Amino acid sequence: MNNIPTTAVVRGACPHDCPDTCALLTTVENGRAVKVQGNPNHAQTDGVLCTKVLRYTERTYHPERLLQPLRRVGPKGAGQFEPVSWDEALDAIAERLKVIAAHDPQAVLPYSYAGTMGLVQSESVAARFFHKLGASLLDRTICASAGAEALTQTLGNKVGTKVEFFAESKLILIWGSNSIGSNLHFWRLAQAAKRDGAKLVCIDPRRTETAEKCHEHIALRPGTDAALALALMHELIVNDWLDQDYIDRYTLGWAGLRERAMQWTPERAAEVCGVPVAQIKQLARDWGTTQPAAIRLNYGMQRVRGGGNAVRAVACLPALTGAWRQRGGGLLLSSSGHFPVRRAALQRPDLLGQQRPRTINMTTIGDSLLQPASPEFGPQIQALLVYNSNPVAIAPESGKVVQGFSREDLFTVVLEHFQTDTADYADFILPATTQLEHWDIHTSYGHTDVLLNRPAIAPVGEARTNTDIFRALAQRMGFTDPCFAESDESLCRSALGDEKDFEVLLANGFASLPLPDAPFAQGGFPTPSGRCEFFSQRLVDQGLDGWPDHLPNYELARPGGHYPLAMISPPARNFLNSSFVNVKSLRDIEAEPILEMHPQDAACRGIVDGDVVKVFNDRGIYHCKARLNQRARLGVVNGLGVWWRKLGLNGTNVNELTSQNLTDLGRAPVFYDCLVEVAVNDSQLTAPTLKEIQHA
Ligand SMILES: Nc1nc2c(c(=O)[nH]1)N[C@H]1C(S)=C(S)[C@@H](COP(=O)(O)OP(=O)(O)OC[C@H]3O[C@@H](n4cnc5c(=O)[nH]c(N)nc54)[C@H](O)[C@@H]3O)O[C@H]1N2
Ligand SMILES: Nc1nc2c(c(=O)[nH]1)N[C@H]1C(S)=C(S)[C@@H](COP(=O)(O)OP(=O)(O)OC[C@H]3O[C@@H](n4cnc5c(=O)[nH]c(N)nc54)[C@H](O)[C@@H]3O)O[C@H]1N2
Ligand code: SF4
Ligand SMILES: [Mo]
């Protein structure tokens, strides 16, 4: 296939859902990948990879890698399968889809997210397939849509400071981000700035590795970021630290925002956020008097009810002080809006023709799978095709998700590398290629380079690319449109449009977008008004508040309440969402599923370090091991995610406890807006037990 050399160093791109989008060099000897390294010529990668992807060959040649199609032989969820041929599997799947679609194609639902971020192996041929079929559309909200919507309403798109210029900042706020764990290459730039005298401030309820290494850590309560941002504005106003010229020329709605901010004294915010008044005042002084100053916002702080408003409030701060005037100033949450991706050409929504299918929110998949047919909902979901995602592990309120996936009448197909928690519920599992085995093209949400990924090795076993699988299904469904014959290489070529650029990618493996150093030094925001929109008419038109405000969490701890502890569930450093949990060397580093607790919260519950505990609320029980340390603030517990259920204690993970509530903007999940109680475990545990996990 594709003339892959048997001995070579092949240029590629990391496929994972990580802002760093590293350039890879894969060493191949006699057709086998022996080493994966960072490309030293790519400035953002700088020859460095995280621990997870340094072990990519371990994942690729994992003894449990799926190597042939499988058909279920046991009850749903039991994980019992038998091998079948590709023809048998594809014929049977197409047959079943035809029967369901003949009645109503909306009963078919794709479920996919960012297992690979590649434009081709994610939504290209797959999207064409589901459009042609008229299947339900999927609202892909599971991660970033609250922040994305907020940024779009404020700055106009997912755009911001070019990451390389953070190295020139004199003040960096690392806000809702554990950069060392989840944005390593940004941390290297922050370190460079620090060496040059910059002050680093981390704003995070958890005392992360990153927080420890910053000059200041503001350990606010989860879901109180908008209150903090508004109090900072209050201080900028009363101390006259504003860039009034920038505000007058390049922003919209200042009078209204000013009025709101004046209601948020540092004292009031300190009460809500649970941090000292002096700390808020100092942060405001730093932000108001340091240039260049920049904010690295990440998605951690938008996983609560008011997550969208919080991002809007924070995104106003750079305009207030004119921080955008310098290239080392401003804010970065996501850079993905800078890329001219030709989505319609890749995904072909025109194939829908006259069909106007409903949209199902992936966040509430638990509820949706349990919905009967009704005039409001439409047909019951009867077929689910899952690729690039592991919903049984990562979607909120697992109890409902598992119940939905357990429906014997639901026809489920899972395209995967491994037999994940989700694959256990499949009727057919189809083995997919990894990044070392296929073509793809990548944009990034952390930098502004495009990367090309070439296959380094032939597919392992009988694995096929996602694109090939959907092409083969399209053929069996009788979809004759020539777009189903387009090759992956051609899809890579057309994804961003420019042939000339593609030649550069073929030669180098990466290329930088031509962008100004300080994109908003003189306004020019991609909003309807061209200004930074403190006030958004578009939100008002949707019946929403035009200015950002603090919205308290859905689940707020109250004295004497049933569930008195707030729980957040940020990523464990050596996993990537639920990916890599089955790579033994990485799982060994994480050791076991844990709940970090403040020693005082543990002491009053009789819990000592290392106890097996049950963490519970009305939605479920999660078993894990208590770790008492100062990473947890008082009243907040940290359930590090996201373990595979079947590799976790008693077959549970942290999403047993999270809710299917949605954020204020963007219809996103509220993983970190969750109350729980914790007690020493008193029930008999079934497998796996702690011992089994440690000795696996
Ligand atoms: N190693 C590793 N890297 C990853 C991932 C991973 O799972 N593992 N996930 C990837 C993905 S999918 C994404 S979306 C990105 C970004 O993923 P994020 O979810 O943004 O990941 P983190 O950088 O860990 O940032 C979350 C931080 O926000 C903090 N936090 C929680 N609640 C609040 C709050 O209310 N306010 C504030 N200020 N902070 C809060 C958490 O304690 C945590 O330290 O990272 C990617 N990179
Ligand atoms: N409690 C809690 N839950 C969370 C989060 C949290 O912080 N706390 N984080 C949330 C966030 S930010 C996100 S983004 C979601 C992520 O949720 P998902 O997008 O589901 O991410 P993963 O868990 O990494 O699962 C991706 C799966 O895709 C598979 N895969 C990778 N490449 C390919 C490919 O080329 N082809 C095919 N067919 N499969 C492939 C991998 O093997 C893996 O099993 O989880 C969310 N869930
Ligand atoms: S840091 Fe992120 S982009 Fe780089 S190799 Fe690791 S997961 Fe991939
Ligand atoms: Mo994410």
Report on this structure.
This protein is an alpha/beta fold. It has four domains: 7-60, N-terminal domain of TfIIb, CATH 2.20.25.90; 70-134 and 359-512, Rossmann fold (3-Layer(aba) Sandwich); 160-333, 3-Layer(aba) Sandwich (Dimethylsulfoxide Reductase, domain 2), CATH 3.40.228; 565-695, Barwin-like endoglucanases (Beta Barrel). Helices cover 30% and strands 17% of the residues. The strands form seven sheets. The chain has a six-stranded mixed sheet with strand order 5-4-17-16-15-6, covered by helices on one side. A six-stranded mixed β-barrel has the order 22-26-23-25-24-27. Strands 10-9-8-12-13 form a five-stranded parallel sheet. α9 (225-238) crosses α13 (277-289) and α9 (225-238) packs parallel to α14. The mean pLDDT is 96. Bound molecules: ligand MGD (2 copies), iron/sulfur cluster and molybdenum atom. Molybdenum atom binds next to loops. Residues 14, 16, 18, 20-22, 49-50, 52-53, 184, 576 line the site of iron/sulfur cluster.
